[in-house]
Amino acid sequence: MVTIFTPLYNRADIVENLYNSLKRQTVKDFEWLVIDDGSTDNPKEKFDVWIKENNGFDIRFYRVENGGKHRAINKGVKLAKGELFFISDSDDYLPDNAIELVEKIDSGIEDKTGFAGFSGIIKSPSGELFGTTFDGDYIDATSLDRGEYGVSGDKSEVMYTKVMKKYPFPEIENENFITEDIVWSRMAADGYKIRWTNEFIYVAEYLEDGLTMQGREKFRKNPIGYTMYAKQITKLRNMSEKETYNYYYYCYLDLKDTLGLVKTARLLEASALKLWLKAANMKTRQLLHNLLKKNR
Q1: Count H helices, E strands: the chain?
Q2: How far apart are CA 199 and CA 202, in angstroms?
Q3: Which residues on adjacent β-strands are paired with residue 133?
């Protein structure tokens, strides 16, 4: 069975789009598990009605204190009854045959040992493709290696619940966001592959007040989780010192107004002097670029 998992926060006005798409599914072998992350718009009122309807699938609704999507996922993984864990955000929805395709992809992986899950493509409601497609039916690669195979851009991952249970998201006191890639890359570092496919299984809206569109601002407000990920990804990708400080420089740009250079360097466990030299070098290069552009 599939657990369709939805972390919900102040989306009572549009989550019905997802609900209606679940009612239209050609295969109903799934549960819909919803964690309300401290919403203030009373979504429970709608769910109380939907739970009583004859939908052909179970709905389980839980309310928790607001702590961010990653904490909601951690709780959802513990509660999930399905072998497959399919995260569907509250402002998105599924094409009518999504679960049918999910089961088809899963059944095609004969030996699931070493697989964290599989992936399908995302489109906008108008049909615009997010990310890239590729030649062939599928590519088996880790999330760290997928770029080498031409797999890029946003994808919709369906993960194996038992694997998700081994990799909970870090929960940092007084922070309510951490990128999902911190877990996907840890799985990849341990050798877990994803089966990347060209199957269309997800429709994304990308609203202006959604997590995707708020990315940089979320990083700024959650510096410990942000720098934790930066340290992790530079090590997992075996970056040289030069590449690492190039990466850290952009972290510094995001955090300089709130933390400053010394505190940012401390969180990154990096040399404040080397980070300052990198920033000074980049500023000089930008000034020269602007000067040359002006004098053309």
Answers
A1: 11, 9
A2: 9
A3: none
Main-chain dihedrals φ then ψ at residue 270, nearest 5 degrees: -120, 165
Q: What pLDDT, on the 0 to 100 scale, is given for residue 178?
A: 95
Please identify which residue in the block is written with the tokens 């030299």. Answer: 277
Strand partners, 63: 36
pTM of the model: 0.91
What is the distance between the alpha carbons of residues 219 and 171, in angstroms, rounded to a whole number?
A: 15
122, β-bridge pairs: 130, 202
Does residue 194 carry a pLDDT above 60?
A: yes
Lookup: tokens for 156: 């919709």
Closest CA to 270 of 245, 287, 289: 245
Euclidean distance between CA atoms 14 and 1, whole angstroms: 26
> Read out DSSP for 173-213?
TT-----THHHHHHHHHTT-EEEEEEEEEEE----TTSTTT
The amino acid sitting at 232 is Q
pLDDT of residue 233: 97
